[in-house]
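User: For my dataset I need records formatted as: sequence, then structure tokens, nothing else. Please produce one.
Assistant:
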Amino acid sequence: MNTALYAVTRTLRALFVVWAAFTLTFVALRLLPGDPVALMLSGRGGFAGLTPQQIAQTRADLGFDRPLIVQYGSALADALHGDFGSSLQSGQPVSHMITEAIPPTLQVGSLALVLALVLGTLTGVTANLTASPALRQLLRSIPSFAVSLPSFWVGLILIQVLSFQWHLFPSLGNTGVQSMILPAFTLAVPGAALVAQVLGKSLHTTLQEPYADTVRATGAGRARLLFGHGLRNAAIPAVTVVGLLVGYLIGGAVVVETVFSRPGMGRITQSAVSSQDLPVVQGVVVVAALAFAVVNLLIDLVYPVLDPRIRSTGRLVTT
């Protein structure tokens, strides 16, 4: 398999993921109990005071009177043009709501990703670099503990200590760079633990391979072996984790933006799910799936650079 075919295969796989996310979300939302038209009108007194003709007209205006397959085809065609319809609650175009919500989420998510990679890499590398057995064991234990911490609990502890007691960072809102620190760190803690676990274990395995003994025989120290050879050979599992981290950060935004009262994709997702606002939920899921697919596609395209064997086989080589 050559590089071009490898890239085409991964691109088609990414497109399939986005299409599957759209289709599964569409079907799942239509199977939910409850009437979205009634929920939409609930703030206006529900069906009370409306004639059957007015209710039927509302359904027709929203397209809920058409066969399901027709609704799916129309929604898919519109989505391909970036049109996810209008919110059943606010009446705003969903694409406009998402466009406004993406920047705050992207800012916190990007900072959280950087923090997770830096902290995770430092922990994983130090655990394999140190000559102290006690420190090595401690560093290898921290990720298992940190990855089990619920995000909302970490966020509440940070607010209690760093905001209420020490007054270092604002506890709520979106008022500048300082307001991003606590939400980003809350998201980064489990992510850093995951990176440290995967990279640390991969480095440990890599340093036990026969070529490492050859490098040591040339007089190379532990640091030279690790930075000169080990990191590159242990990079593929760690790079794979980045794709998982993006998925985690997208899902974690719902909790973090709720805890810290920040605007963003998480807040509109939480609001749309609670009010069964189908077009908004559909749009958010597709955008999240698209972001996840794009990041994982980029990671797939990096693999052949890290491991030349993938260029010829088209698949990961684990031995």
